[in-house]
Amino acid sequence: MRSKSLALIAASTGLALAMTACGANTSTGGDTTTDTNTDSASGGGTKVGVILPETKSSARWEGFDKPLLEKALKAEGLDPDIQNAQGDVQKFSTLADGMINAGVKVLIIATPNSEVGASVAQKAKSSGIPVIDYDRLNLGGSSDYYVSFDNEKVGELQGQGLVQGLEKLAPGKKPAEVIEIEGAPTDNNATLFHNGQKKVLEPKYGAGDYKLVQSQAIPDWDNQQGGVTFEQILTGNGQKVDGVVAANDGLAGAVITVLKKYGLNGKVPVTGQDATPEGLQAVLRGDQFMTVFKPIDAEANATAKLAAALAKGDKAGADALATGSVEDTKGSRTVKSVLLEAQLITKENVKTVVDAGFVKASEVCVTDLAATCTELGIK
Ligand code: GAL
């Protein structure tokens, strides 16, 4: 599905520059005009459009992606218009039409599904506007570039996290009974996460060490639906489960709410991803065994640098940044990519995420976790 080339250099450059941008004054020097719609030749105020997919699936989109993309794009002297389609495909298409008609120089899209992504990219490119698939690859699309994490590797980290959790919380249990609550079937990332999990877990299922009770994908990553589905599977299995794969922190939270009902929270390892404040709190409480930290500032910064090059028509510069590539099997094409690395987070290294400035200690060390944070040096 993807070549192995990973843009680690872009990641470290991106992360280093993003950290600078976070602290830097992003004003453009003496320019005091407040009208950000000017499209000056210097690239200052060059409009770029960003459309995010939804809010319900994960706190990341409005909590991290939007502010970090805004900061990174402005640091490149661009004028971002960032909208969220709220999971509505028609709204996504309408927002894109508006941005194309407004003459954005680059369109950056993270879509609810590949179909709308492919259709929007086609419209943009027929207007001469380059398109970046942000975080999610649109299968069968025509985007010029893709910026994301190595999402199969993210799934492997989730699989490894479950193995570590079962070794700790259900040592010797054979077979350990596992329920998998996966992401939206319309999101190519969900497929990649599951592929990565399977690399780790299928040998365990095959050897009889683990038994897969059921694996269920949740439309739109809908957290509430995820909780209802998980409870149905759990009660259908006689309220027995030893470990749960939850594909992101939002679904993990819904699973934990159900486990609490049956007195199982903290006894059953649950995976996640996104290192959201709620997810990190659950990890510190022991209700969630792990999450995956995806430095979204690096993803936003890499996207902004790519957009800046494209806005200036510097295709060679853009290609020099996109040193990775992925295969779009549906569209039978290779897409130039920036693929960033992610990190497995358990209780022992939550501090890493706070020290990276990704979340504040105040967002994680809430009242009942004050002592735990002190003990772990999180401040
Ligand atoms: C995926 C994204 C993950 C997860 C999920 C739910 O595409 O890569 O970080 O948050 O969406 O929004």
Describe this protein with a few key phrases.
14 helices; Rossmann fold; three-stranded parallel beta sheet; about 375 residues; 12 strands; binds beta-D-galactopyranose; 2 domains; alpha/beta
Please sum up the structure shown.
This protein is of the alpha/beta class. The protein is built from 14 helices and 12 strands.
Structure description:
With 379 residues, the protein is of the alpha/beta class. The chain has 2 domains: 3-149 and 295-340, Rossmann fold (3-Layer(aba) Sandwich), CATH 3.40.50; 151-293 and 344-376, Rossmann fold (3-Layer(aba) Sandwich), CATH 3.40.50.2300. It is built from 14 helices and 12 strands. The protein has a 7-stranded mixed sheet, with helices on both faces. Strands 7-6-8 form a 3-stranded parallel sheet, with helices on both faces. α3 packs parallel to α4 (114-126), α7 packs across α8 (249-261) and α10 (296-311) runs antiparallel to α11. It is globular. The structure holds beta-D-galactopyranose. Beta-D-galactopyranose is lined by residues 57-58, 60, 135-136, 183, 187, 189, 221, 248, 273-274.
